[in-house]
Specification:
Blueprint lengths: L2 H17 L18 E10 L2 E11 L4 E5 L6 H9 L6 E6 L2 E2 L5 H7 L1 E4 L11 H8 L6 H14 L1 H5 L10 H13 L5 E5 L7 H16 L3 E5 L3 H7 L2 E6 L2 E7 H6 L1 H7 L3
Parallel strand pairs: 3-8, 3-9, 6-7, 7-8
Antiparallel strand pairs: 1-2, 1-4, 4-5, 9-10
């Protein structure tokens, strides 16, 4: 496809090869680099006649945390919805683990390991907290493993265990956000899509949510994070992209974009 995308993929593979080199006296030939987890090529999407995404190219490496930042209405949520299959792509291609998933339904993508914690939490209010978590594992049949994962979610977010029998709609905004993340994790994601996890939360809760995201990163879960809190997102990102009016306009490491004057002025208020 475009030169920019091929450059991104080449850089990713080169970094993967270098990270695997050791210091042995007689080093073995490095193993072939694994392909990226997600490659987006020339992606477009429309709401009616209105273009929401234009020729988006993006690469998500395995076990990386990738941040996507931008202003309201820039296309961040639309991009995540298009990756998860909720929003239809009008052009381009989405490759997951080397497979073209562009024509697949959303439920098929979940079964491949793409799990989405959407903007606005979207918990099932009348259902209990525990039922919401079980719905996150709806495509799984390994009951013992599901029970184990449920305990892990309660260990990560203890308040969910305290309120396990209560309707999810009675939780506070921060607690519902924890539930939305935990519900997505119950699907055992290979790629976790997090859409605005800190939106509308008090600073103390924002810190708690980002602490949980940082812990997930340590567990080497591949994450694509959409976040208006650009400083917090870029500070923990391996790589980041800036999107404006449906187009990717900047990319680089999290640190590079934190130090970028254009990003600092537009999104960090510096």
């Amino acid at each position: 496809m475009t030169n920019a995308l091929e450059t991104l993929i080449t850089e990713h593979r080169a970094i993967s090869r270098l990270s695997g080199l050791g210091l042995a006296c007689a080093p073995e030939a490095p193993a072939p680099a694994a392909p990226p987890m997600l490659v987006i090529r020339g992606l477009g999407s429309h709401y009616g006649r209105i273009p929401a995404l234009r020729d988006v190219n993006l690469v998500v490496g395995r076990r990386q945390l990738i941040a996507l930042v931008g202003a309201n209405g820039a296309g961040k949520t639309t991009l995540l919805r298009t990756i998860s299959g909720v929003q239809k792509a009008s052009s381009g291609r989405i490759e997951f683990d080397g497979q073209d998933i562009t024509p697949l339904r959303a439920d098929k993508r979940v079964r491949l390991g793409i799990c989405h914690a959407p903007e606005g939490r979207r918990v099932f209010g009348p259902l209990s907290v525990e039922d919401n978590l079980h719905l996150g594992a709806y495509c799984r049949s390994d009951k013992a493993a599901i029970a184990g994962d449920l305990e892990r979610m309660y260990a990560m977010f203890p308040v969910l265990e305290q309120k396990a029998r209560l309707p999810a709609g009675t939780l506070s905004g921060g607690q519902q956000q924890m539930l939305a993340i935990a519900r997505a994790l119950m699907g055992r994601p290979r790629l976790l899509l997090l859409d605005e996890p800190s939106m509308g939360l008090a600073p103390m809760l924002v810190e708690e949510i980002f602490s949980a995201v940082t812990e997930l990163r340590k567990q080497e879960i591949t994450i694509l994070l959409v976040e208006q809190n650009a400083h917090a997102a870029l500070a923990i990102a391996d790589r980041a992209y800036v999107i404006e009016t449906g187009e990717i306009v900047l990319s680089g490491s999290g640190k590079e974009l934190l130090d970028n004057e254009r990003v600092r002025e537009a999104y960090l208020g510096i």
